[in-house]
Amino acid sequence: MSASLEFVMHAANVHKSFGRLHILKGVSLDVRPRETVCIIGASGSGKTTFLRCINHLEKIDSGRIEVNGHQIGYRTRNGKLVEDRERNISRQRTEIGFVFQRFNLFPHKTALENVIEAPVHVRGVAKSQAIEEAEKLLVRVGLADKKDAYPGKLSGGQQQRVAIARSLAMKPALMLFDEPTSALDPEVTGEVLDVMEELAHEGTTMIVVTHEMGFAKRAADRVVMMDEGVIIEEGSPEHFFESPTHERTKAFLSKIL
Amino acid sequence: MIAAIQFSWHVVWSRIVDPNSVFAHALWATVYISIVAQIMGILLGLVAALMRMSRLTPFRFLSGLYVLVFRGTPVLVQIMFFYLVIPLPNVIDFGAFSLKSSFAAGILALGINEGAYMREIIRAGIDSIERGQMEAAKSLGMRYGLAMRRIVLPQAARVIVPPLGNEFNNMMKTSSLVSIIGVYELFADAQQGYSASFDAAYFVAVAFWYLVLTSIWSFFQALIERKLAVSEHDNEISLKERAVAIWTEGGGMVRSAWPWRARA
Asked: What is the ipTM of this complex?
């Protein structure tokens, strides 16, 4: 793979169906290093499914997804997609951080244990070193004092920030956020969005599925609008929120803003 | 002459306060058989549960067949089958223990039978863990086995342990059935005393000893459940409260940390 990749994430013509339901109808998207891309759209438009395909939590029917130049989840054999071996898929996922809508912290482990779990048991980092790095990450998300707390003792906002630290601990090339504030009480969404905004400004490569238009305006380099399984419009936040061209984008934004 | 069946309290008493060395051997046999068979059952149950959830149809089929056969036939029949049909060497060396084939056959039958029940318990435990846990583990680059071992099973253990405790309680009692193939354990010991004297007191005494075993186990069960509950911070119930509950709720029925099982 080339040393300086043009794209961290490259998706070409991705199709995905659940049974007879055609969710993704040819999605193509490229994300450059240090770029923050926000994906917006009505529920059912396929944005979450697309995000889950990027780290192969969902299989795809056709098309191609690459992260860091590696095809995700499949090998192409005689022009047909063949699912890759689990070992390879897992290795690819270490490059991709995923933050879930419902946090999915490990409830039987403390905040610190959640963060060091993958570095120690997947990457094989020494525990002392992993703890040192995890403590720094917890400081970064503002939860240094909660490192020994179990997730059940943390608020939703705190849990989500631990989840972000947990993903960052693997030093991924790409961070995926799946509606990270949708399950939160309104008064704590700010603390999570602040952390994400900081990440964006520090140059983390991120794809964020969100309904938070304020965040998209402030943090995104590019906004992508999905509708019925395709990307119908993309552009800078200025373009998007001031002069959207597509009728459906206008309709969606007028409803949500 | 017809021997009259008797009942003498002093026999009960002496069997309780002054057990002989043969009895000690029988007691140990019951404990040993139960523990080894239960461990075998847990391991087989885990394998069968994972096979049941496999993507490969033959695995699921085998797992289903296993449960169908071993839950669908009497354990007594299974014990006879393993004793008479499965060729086992006459003496098996289990480290410190040298076992007669009846001993091995009894343990195998009980363990394999138990595995069929443990499969359902373990599967229910795994099913109770949100799918998001496995997804989160995978998204961090963990492979299926590692994610199961480090993330899913430790959480499932909380759900698995209470019914598992009851399974072991049952196991200690069910192990008495292996006396039929000539294994000398608690029940066989009582039976021998009875057949020599026609004194039913032997069975009362042995009931007492089973009660001792199950009560001790209930105490350990409470300890384990308490330890598992601590990290989950739900109900912090003191050990003393649990020890009391063993007697007020009945042995092996300590469920207070699991609200959906609570009686009150």
From this structure: 0.93
